[in-house]
Amino acid sequence: MPTTILAIESSCDDTSAAVIRDGILLSNVTASQKVHEMYGGVVPELASRAHQQNIVPVVDAALKNAGVTKEELSAIAVTLGPGLMGSLLVGVSFAKGLAVSLGIPLIEANHLQGHILAHFIHTEGEPANDPPYPFLCLLVSGGNSQIVKVTAYNRMEILGQTIDDAAGEAIDKCSKVMGLGYPGGPIIDRLAREGNPKAFHFAKPNIPEMNYSFSGLKTSFLYFLRDKIKENPQFIEENKCDLAASLEATIVDILMKKLKIAVKETGITHVALSGGVSANTGLRQAFKNMEKSGRWKIYIPKFSYTTDNAAMIAITGYYKFLDGEYCPLSKPAYSRTIL
Ligand code: KG4
């Protein structure tokens, strides 16, 4: 009998469901929430309400697109954390209820582990490009910036991480002070393509080891703009492409510097990129340059698997199912964790 798993992800503001059969992804459906745009950030209470509205149609669509009925499912995988508690509870309660009603096991997935295992998502007819163990993964999203050493699907060690803001959070906040929309990442990326990355210089952190810090950059960006606007109220409008390009270049530099240290210290040259910020053109280019130089072999997931999605929870669930690693129904969702 084939192993067919339904996966559910609802940790932040995307409601997503996916179906995987014998390690091959059959469907991946995501409903993004537009309601947060006018607030310039995710409003947790609104996110949970939108998840409640989306969860049934999203799961239905995932099963339908996969051509799978509920009765064919072997297990339900769900993101148990970390994330927004109200958002997580919608997916977790739904998954638990469905598992009980179908009499099948529940499998828990860690959201960050899922982002890293997104590199192992396979679809029919698509050539596999799995990173070999051990590999390093730069996990950069709205909530995390970490360098992780991955020795097995369930063995991950954080070598360094942000001590304050995440890279995506810094980009989003700088975009907000420039009066651009939310989320700032894709907007800054688009503007940066038209700008000069060397036009402006912003403070870079000087913290030990492989850790990151982005809050100083955010503050220096804010003060820089404040001073410039005093001289010329049109400064942002007239320089937004150069500002975006210089900001992006600074963040990419900060990320790559520590990653290069990690490669040097571990001797591991297979390097993967994960999380929402991995969609960034400048960061992808910096990775490609390292590969071109012959020093690294790089792994960048498909765009649709970089932001929050249930496909990455499906592959995590599949590996755990093969190991018989089920989750007791009594285990609660959690908002914070390390890998
Ligand atoms: O992984 P993700 O979807 O959500 C979290 O789990 O945090 O990442 C979202 C983050 C946001 O900060 C967003 O601005 C950023 O990824 N992002 C980008 C780009 N696309 C999304 N940052 C830079 N360039 C992009 N093209």
Please characterize this protein's 3D structure:
The protein has helices at residues 44-66, 85-102, 111-117, 167-177, 184-192, 215-231, 235-266, 281-292, 311-322; strands at residues 4-9, 14-21, 24-32, 75-81, 106-110, 122-123, 135-140, 145-152, 155-161, 270-274, 297-299. The chain is α/β, with parallel strands linked by helices. The strands form two sheets. A six-stranded mixed beta sheet has the order 5-4-1-2-3-6, sandwiched between helices. The model has no long low-confidence stretch (mean pLDDT 95). 5'-O-[(R)-(carboxyoxy)(hydroxy)phosphoryl]adenosine is lined by residues 12, 141-143, 168, 171-172, 183-186, 189, 275-277, 279-280, 307-308.
Figure out the total of helices. 9
* Strand fraction: 15-25%
Distance between the termini: 32 Å
Radius of gyration: 20 Å
Helix-strand makeup class? alpha/beta
Small-molecule binders here are: 5'-O-[(R)-(carboxyoxy)(hydroxy)phosphoryl]adenosine
Question: What multimeric state do the chains show?
Answer: single chain
Side by side, the strands of the main sheet go 5-4-1-2-3-6
- Regions with little confidence, pLDDT below 50 for 5+ residues: none
For the largest beta-sheet, the strand count, sense and barrel status come to: 6 strands, mixed
Number of strands: 11
Mean pLDDT: 95
Helix content: 40-55%
The SSE order reads EEEHEHEHEEEEHHHHEHEH
Principal-axes geometry comes out as: globular
